[in-house]
Amino acid sequence: MKIDDCRERFRTFLADSGFRITNQRLAIFDAAFRIDNHFTAEELLDEARKIDSSVSRATVYRTLPILTGSSLVREIDVGKDFKFYLANPEKGNQQAQVLCEDCDKIFEIDAPFLEWYGSSVSSKFGLKPVSQRLQISAQCTEYRESGACKNHS
Ligand SMILES: [Zn+2]
Predict the structure, then answer these.
(1) 83, 90, 104, 136: which one has the fewest Cβ atoms less than 10 Å from its Cβ?
(2) Is it the case that residue 109 has pLDDT exceeding 90?
(3) Cα(111) to centroid(ligand 1), Å
């Protein structure tokens, strides 16, 4: 999906959900789509400020739940005290993550079996699955070779 189509969907989502369409919200949205990898709220703030210098940290934190609510940005909880995000309208939760346990580098892989697995396990208990996730802790090449990663995020 093209960025323009995504932006249009975001505008529609804002309007339908009763949120005002503000330049700051659109700047944060654009910033999320400019970063092609996983990002934190702080990285999103830096990127959004390049587009609109009036974007504040508070606005970013208030806008992130709106972005994830629109399903155009995915939240990835890796069990830390902060979350990662990914602008990814198409893949939903059919993705598994492999994370370096030292530098937090995240690799995403398609995992179409996840949904099937979630529903077959849930159905044994008569439950309806809502979401499922798979995360694998790993050591990146740099960690394996030198015992530490330079790129701590
Ligand atoms: Zn690493």
Answers:
(1) 90
(2) no
(3) 22
Instruction: Order across the sheet with 95-100: list the strands.
Output: 106-110, 95-100, 135-138
Given a cut of 90, whether residue 44 has pLDDT beyond it is: yes
**Structural domain includes residue 47:** yes
Q: Which two tokens stand for residue 76?
A: 């990835």
User: Taking 60 as the threshold, does the pLDDT of residue 5 lie above it?
Assistant: yes
The boundaries of the domain holding residue 113 are 95-146
CA 133 to ligand 1 center in whole angstroms: 21
β strands within 3-123, DSSP E: 73-76, 84-87, 95-100, 106-110
The domain boundary, picked from 87, 106, 124, lies at: 87
The pLDDT tens digits of the residues spanning 16-43 come to: 999 999 999 999 999 999 998 899 999 9
Q: Do 97 and 85 contact (CB within 8 A), yes or no?
A: no
Q: Give the CA distances from residue 33 to residues 5, 135, 150, in Å, rounded to whole numbers and listed in that order.
A: 12, 23, 26
